[in-house]
Each structure stands twice: as C-alpha cells, then as structure tokens.
Amino acid sequence: MRLGTIQQADGSRAVIVGVSETEAAVVEGFADLGDLIEHPDGLALASKAKAQSGRISLDGVHWLPPLRRPGKILGVALNNSANPDRIMQGPSTPAMFVKPSSSLVGHGQPIRVKERYGRVHPEPELTVVIGTGGAELTIDEAPGHVFGYTIMNDLTSPTMRGDDTFHYRAIHPDPDDPNGIRYVDSWVSYPARYKGADTFGPLGPWVVTTDEVPDPHALRIQCRHDGRVVTDDNTGNLRFSVAEVVSFTSQYLTLEPGDVIAMGTALRASAKGGAVQNVDLVRLGGTVEVEIEGIGVLSNPVEHH
Question: Can you tell me the distance from the alpha carbon of 123 to that of 111, in angstroms, rounded to the nearest whole number?
Fold first, then answer.
C-alpha cells in the first residue's frame, strides 16, 4: 500500500492511499500519516478507502511530508560500503545524527538555499518509517517494527559543517591520577545547521508498506540533477542493514510509531562520472530528483533566498 499526505484545496490536510499511478483515495479522518500509523485500524481503513469509488487526481496535488512532525528523524552517517576505505577512524557500529522536523518539505516543494550556506549538495537515501515502537529490539525482532519505506534527500552543507567543527583539546580524566586530568587532541562537528536547516529534509511523496518491499536491500536508487544522473547505486551497498540499524538504535533511543530513519547516502557515481558532492545547489540551482525502485520519485526545485 502506498500512503501519503497532501494539502487539499481548502487548506486542510488529508492522508491519501494510492489507487493507480494517477489517482488516489482520501482516507477520511486522518490529517497526517503519523495518526494513521498509530491508529489500531489505520491500515484497514486505508484499504477500505482504496476499495471505494471516490478518487482524486494526483495531477497538481500539493504534497506535504507524509509525516508532519515525527518524534525522531534520524540519519545514519557514512552507511555505505564505499565509505570504510575513506574512514581513518570511526565506530564499527551505526553512528546516528538527528534532523529537526522543521527541515521537512514535501515532494514538489522548493528547497530554499541562501548564499551564506556556502556549498549545499543532495544525498539520496532509503528511509525507514517505524510502525510499532519498542526498545532493546533484537535484529530478528527489528523488521517487525517497520511500517514501511520512503525517500529522503538528506541535504547537507559541507561549508556549514566546516564552520561548526571544533579542533580542540578535550579534557579527560587522568588514568594515573584519580583527581587529575589530561588533554586529548579532538575533532567534533555539530550537525544542527549543516543537516537541519529549513527545507534540508525533502521527504516522500509516498510511504510504501513493507509488504510491497520484500527486500529493502535490493533496490536501485538514483539521484538526478536537472535530468542528469549523478548517482546510480543499490541499497544492497548499505554497510548496515535496516534490521541492524533499527535494532542498534533501539538500544539507546526508544523507537516510537512514525519515527523516521534515513539509512545513509547512495554514493556510487553514474557511468558518466561525478558525485553528489559536485552538485552545489547554491551555485547550480535546478531540480533534484531521487528515485528508489518500488517506492517512487521525490522531486524538488531549488529556490535562492
């Protein structure tokens, strides 16, 4: 089942279920997909709406992020098999960061960039939507807590990352003196701006339920800029699997219905070369598309502000 959230002509929000490539049905009583996920009969009501005769055209629909304010929007850092050779030091487990819900924007809606952001590039990512909450989940249990999958363009500003990186002498306890301290040369960067600026989280348009995605690690994923393929990768190249990421995350953060986890950037360059890091949206503008096999296409134009 394919589910999304739109803004209707009267300004109200509605959850829709896809009926065909061009039509959908409104699931009455829900203004946000998160509400449907938490409702005990949510999927049954969506299925009922899909079977009824009422239809709306998807042509010109004003898409909203399928989930308006997830409790948590998490990203997995450097989670691609192309990364380990580049990592000089780092964890052997998933590393997470948080994006604010205010960064979310729907399909077709503008990515707003400003000159002071410096360089901004796209990052195409398969994204997990949690259905059933839980903590301390095993790897075997984790897939049962996934509601479905969607697409995120995890926009990133390396310029702001550099600006917000500290190289400093961290204070640590002295192992040879219980009352002493020692200084350790350290680097640390804080992602609030460079990952979480307004519109840095295009999401959607659809959330596709797990029954329609039998293997989330066998999906072709592309990123296109103004129609040119920049990245052509496969989710099979993720370093840590969905089950591993969901399980690991739940050891530290209790997962809740509607939480979102972006699985990490597809990196493999297209046959014509280049990389997402070369697509500076502040300089180039244009339109960015992320397509994931079986899930859909997320497209957003760039606006300078």
Answer: 13
Per-domain boundaries in the chain: 1-64, 67-163+190-304
What would the pLDDT profile of 93-105 be if each residue is shown by its tens digit?
A: 999 999 999 999 9
Give dist(CA 32, CA 15) in Å, integer: 6
Among 12, 26, 14, which residue's Cα sits nearest to residue 56? 26
Q: Dihedral through CA 150, CA 281, CA 21, CA 44, nearest 10? A: 30
Residue 247: partners with Cβ closer than 8 Å, 6 or more residues away? 137, 138, 139, 141, 142
Label residues 163-189 b or e (16+ Cβ within 10 Å = b).
eeeeeeeeeeeeeeeeeeeeeeeeeee
Residue 67 is given by DSSP the state S
Task: Write down the pLDDT at residue 175.
Answer: 92
SS3 category, 250: helix
pTM listed for this prediction: 0.95
Please determine, for residue 146, whether its predicted confidence score (pLDDT) is greater than 90.
Answer: yes
Distance separating alpha carbons of residues 259 and 42, to the nearest angstrom: 16
Q: What is the pLDDT of residues 55-85, one digit of tens each?
A: 999 999 999 999 999 999 999 998 886 656 6
At 149, the amino acid letter reads: Y
What Å distances lie between residue 203 and 4, 49, 116, 278, CA to CA? 10, 24, 24, 22
The arrangement of secondary structure in 67-163+190-304, i.e. its CATH architecture, is Alpha-Beta Complex (3.90)
